[in-house]
Amino acid sequence: MPIFSHSSPCCTAAAMAAVNLSDRRTKFASPSWSNCKVTSPIHRLSENDKFSVSRLALSHSRRGVKGQTISMALVGNTVGQKGEVATSSSILAYDLIQGELVRWSSVMDRSLPDPPTAVFLHGILGCRKNWGTFARRLAKEFPTWQFLLVDLRCHGDSTSIKKRGPHTVASAANDVLKLVRDLRITPRVLVGHSFGGKVVLSMVDQAAKPLARPVRAWVLDATPGKVRTGGDGEDHPAELISFLSTLPKEISTKQEVVRALIQQGFSNDVAQWVVTNLRPSSSPGSQSSSFSWVFDLRGIAEMYQSYEETNLWKIVEDVPRGVHMNFLKAERSLHRWALEDLRRIHAAEELAAEEGGGVEMHVLEDAGHWVHTDNPDGLFRILSSSFQVAKT
Length: 392
What we know:
Shape: globular
GO molecular function: hydrolase activity
Strand order of the largest sheet: 2-1-3-5-4-6-7-10-11
Organism: Phaseolus vulgaris (Kidney bean)
Keywords: Hydrolase
Distance between the termini: 27 Å
CATH architecture of the largest domain: 3-Layer(aba) Sandwich
């Protein structure tokens, strides 16, 4: 399925807005909408691609001043029309994958209610492409839904969108909240893997007011509190980030990085995954080839430290009304979960049930931490309940 964008390739593997944190019972306030130019070429899909995809591609304006120009390509049966979309600033790079029955576009007809939307967030050193294949499968199975895949700050194509520090779980969550507000999207399902799981919890914590009801939140193989890593002999994100920061900014070949990582004790799988974050950096016509990292390692190091320090048990043990929280533990991801975590989630499950909320624990069999690649079929079956139950 082709996606049309001027954004650079991404890897395979989230200024606070004022919100009323005390009110967890109100609905999404209607967002403001700023202006920006849009071009909407029409592309025809093959018979095999029976859903439409829209992406906002981010590129700097010629004047290079306030914000960036955003162009939209609407694909499929939706006819593109020119309009104005967010010229004042850009927030995050993203893909919006729509089921074949979705005819909504915030640009084309703002009077229509938005379709049910699920937001998918990647883990540290990942990007939105991690969820591409999985989201397309969901779009085929649930054609009335749309799926927003986001590059968190300092990751993927969002790296070029400069963000003020601190780079934290909370600031990453606020970025996503501002994005859905500006896109006029009301998320019904939030899914976050690893670091992205805490971002989901922070979204609910910060924005119980802007988030619509009901909301089903999924935290995939991450706990609300203490981060435990390294039990499988190669899962050491902090060490990986630290080592990558010692490498040159310009890399001659991907193979040299793979060799260096393996010599440092990381597995070949991790090494091969990491180099997908390299993109060609040579100037056109140059005889020599080189690569540079697509992410901002300094910012990512700060984000990972925040991930280790952030404790969001409070939002689990006091679930906002209408929010259903789901935790998914990978069967082989033993070192990440302590008995204390499981007991605490079970207690929160009982308390939430008494107060009309929801907390639920799931186990994904035959999977390690990389749940969407280790057992995509099992993950699909578990997550599907959210798209069958949630109503527009």
